[in-house]
Amino acid sequence: MTTHVTTHVTTHNPVRTDLAGTPVAPRTSRAWTLAGLGAGLAGIATIATSSMIDVVYRDEYAGTTAGVADALQDKAGVMFAFHSITTLGALLMVVFAAGLHRRLRAVAPHGLAPVVALAGLAGTAVVSVLGAGLDTEFMMPLAQGDGIVDDSTGAMYNHWIGTIPWVWVLAGLAGLALHVVARSGGVPRWIGLVGLVLGGLTVVLGVSPLEYMAGVTGSLWLVVTALGFSFGDRAFRS
After folding, report:
1. Once rounded to an integer, what is the mean pLDDT over residues 5-34?
2. Is residue 154 predicted with pLDDT exceeding 80?
3. In whole angstroms, what is the distance from residue 66 CA to residue 208 CA?
4. What is the dihedral of CA 226, 231, 235, 238, to 10 degrees?
5. What is the C-alpha separation between 130 and 125, in angstroms, rounded?
6. For all residues of the chain together, what is the average pLDDT?
7. CB atoms < 10 A from the CB of 77, how many?
8. Is the C or the N end of the chain the one with fewer CB within 10 Å?
9. How far apart are the C-alpha atoms of 64 and 49, rounded to whole Å?
């Protein structure tokens, strides 16, 4: 009696053996960079509109608040613009913060820089929302001109929107975080240099008694950085 044993051998020969099992990275959206550009431009517009509400800083009101509320009535329209621009900028900044965190995490997965950048920008967004948070309590009554707002309270509000929305000190941390990542080649070196100069200056101004000036350097840093990632980050995209 004869027993026959049949053996089948299956082989797999891919066309490119070097690509076998290699996952294909999904194409990521660059919309977050445009959000950053929008947030930076909104920051500049915030500075411009809040500067237009300058009643309490006029020489005629030096040492007194008498008449401030009446003078602020003419600024009600600018207050509406200031509120919408500042709040929109805060929302766009959160989107940019999330995108920047993802971008930095891809090249520095174990570093602190991605988290610092995210926290700095998210914190600045919160400050912006709070900076515009009192608007409804003042711009509505002032627009109606019903005399509900007294002079001293109106003066306090004018000082509030002339300072708090400009405090971008935490955004400076994001710039310094980019500088750290750029030193290892994770982002273009010129973006890191911009982060060192403008981000560092933003932090220094924020720590100093001139903290409101951080809004100027911070918003400028954000515009330049967002443009850099939009058009100058080709090595990473490829």
Report:
1. 56
2. yes
3. 31
4. 110
5. 9
6. 88
7. 11
8. N
9. 24
Name the token pair of 224: 């330049």
Q: Are 70 and 155 in contact (CB under 8 A)?
A: no
- Please check whether residue 89 is in contact with residue 166, taking contact to mean a CB–CB distance below 8 angstroms: no
- Joined together, the tokens standing for residue 130 give 């709070």
The span from the CA of 40 to the CA of 1, in Å, is 89
Distance CA 238, CA 234 (A): 6
Spatial separation of the C-alpha atoms in residues 37 and 43, rounded to whole Å: 10
Q: What is the 3-state secondary structure (H, E, C) of the chain?
A: CCCCCCCCCCCCCCCCHHHCCCCCCCCCCCHHHHHHHHHHHHHHHHHHHHHHCCHHHCHHHCCCCCCHHHHHHHHHHHHHHHHHHHHHHHHHHHHHHHHHHHHHHHHCCCCCHHHHHHHHHHHHHHHHHHHCCCHHHHHHHHHHCCCCCCHHHHHHHHHHHCCHHHCCHHHHHHHHHHHHHHHCCCCCHHHHHHHHHHHHHHHHHHHCCCHHHHHHHHHHHHHHHHHHHHHCCHHHHC
- Joined together, the tokens standing for residue 63 give 């040492």
State percent of the chain over pLDDT 70: 86
Q: Scan for tokens 């891809």, then name that residue.
A: 106
For the record, the structure tokens of 143 come out as 């627009």
